[in-house]
Amino acid sequence: MNRTRFEKELEELHYDILKMGSLVEEAIGNSIASLVNHDKEMAQRVIDEDDRINKMEIEIDEKCAKIMVTQHPIAKDLRIVLTGLKIVTDLERMGDYAVNIARTTLRIADEKYIKPLIDIPRMSDVVREMVKLSLDSYVRQDLDLARSIGEKDEIVDALYGQIFRELLTYMIEDPRNIHQAAEFLFVARYLERIADHTTNIGEWVIYLETGERIDFKFENIKKRSGQQ
Length: 228
What we know:
With 228 residues, this protein is an all-alpha fold. The protein has helices at 3-36, 40-71, 75-108, 119-140, 143-173, 178-210, 216-224. Helix 1 packs parallel to helix 3 (75-108). It is flat and about 65 Å long.
């Protein structure tokens, strides 16, 4: 393996992954902004620009395949490339969830909302931070950053539970709220799923560095129950 060439190709791979991650983060932010602001044009842009994210996934997959064929990486070098492949799959799925949120906007933007949207944007802010942390942890191969994603995931789960309970109350109080409350519940669920994909990345980074497979949600449960 040509070490200099491999490091250059790896640097390009990292740049592409960060660029794709930036597009995904922007899509998440814009999809929530479109929902909050009843902005159907912004929602449609999120949907239309998803093609860029899908195209980047294909391009990065091809670059990873080329690295493996031409450089024949082994041991940790191979794990870095394989982890990159898994990351872009997670990023593509995050982009799909952003599109789902944008489609929700298109369905209900013309309606008066049953409540101000406060916790959903808060949840989105945490999720976008998790996207950044997950990608930085991979590029830097930083275990502390990777583990911090699991801590953020607990915040997202708590917000999801709070949103679920509040919207359920709206449904019970007035059946006319059911349709819109269900739409908001789906949005919260999409954000929760995006957070899960960021934890996937963090877990793969830990495996990359230590060879150990962990589950952040299981680790959080152990912490709450006082287990070591």
